[in-house]
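Q: Entry one of two.
A:
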Amino acid sequence: MTNTLPPNTGYVAAAYLVFLFILLIYFVIMAIRTARVERELAELLTKSEQRNSRDAAAETSSQ
């Protein structure tokens, strides 16, 4: 019994490498998008807090 690999093993390995490379690119893109969304969410939260404090100040000054 011989321990030889099938002749198309190189193609299978190449296919796995291509798949892993595409998966890596996908994860990088998702990390960039997640960071952008978190940054925008923090900005919206800051604006909301500023608006709430401004509205509260206007409400107390009008009374």
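Q: Entry two of two.
A:
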Amino acid sequence: MMMLSHDSVELTVTTDSLSESLLSEETRKCQAHRVKLSFLSSLTFSWLNPLLDLGYSKPLILEDIPCLYPEDEASLAYKKFSDVWDNLTKDKSSKSKQNLVIRTLAKVYLKDMLFDGTFALARTITVVVSPLLLYAFIRYSNDSTEHNLYRGFFWLVCLVVVKVVESLSQRQWSFHAKRSGMKIRSALMVAIFHKQLKLSAVARKMHSTGEIVNYIMVDAYRMGEISWYFHSAWSCLLQLLLSLGILIGIVGLGALPALVPLVICGIFNIPFAKRLQECKAESMTAQDKRLRATSEILSSMKIIKLQS
């Protein structure tokens, strides 16, 4: 307890209240409001059912939303990113200091991306296996000499199991890829914000406010999607190769001429994709100019008000 007196006015200040964190009560509420997940609920996303029921009965407010787990918070994501970044910048054995952002993200989130890749692989395999099981089931049903019902039930059960695994792996892949992207995006946004606070006057002229906003809104968001697009690229290629092999194995070499229209359509899409990329670049440049002009106008208005 501390007493301050001035002109017969006494002010009582409790030192314990000053040292107490303002976020402690909020942290305790979050810990009590976090959803406890079991294996089945995390696999099927049934932990969302109470929230969906509540949202159906009334409009949701912020207190109704479950809090993030500590590993999903931006502070922890930035701490991991900054620790690896500092180690890479201090590493004298590293000859090249280029692509530090990519190397840092690779070291921090490599395990998460590999974990996401397992679901992408499971989904790709089940997508390829499903037509084979369906083909086997159709052959069994069309075979008039086949009287073994157990074989029919076997193909049917296998088809159902494969479709269930495909659905679960697709949703788990999407969820974990977006979750990893959220961590990457949060770490980059906080890193850009901290870097902006340390910019000198010369650096601020080189990197305008519009460019920094683009870094946060566009570049950081795209980096957050790297896990999804990376796994989508190799899984689509693997699925294409496996499907082509199965098609040739069933139909024969006669399936190859059918791929010619697909290749031609892909070639025709290249100019449109390049033009779309150019339009996006022009849009980003125009947005940067607009934000730069807005920042200069606001700064000039501030100077005029101070001088008046």
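A: Comment on entry two: The chain has two domains: 1-67, 71-255. Residues 1-19 have pLDDT under 50 and may be disordered.
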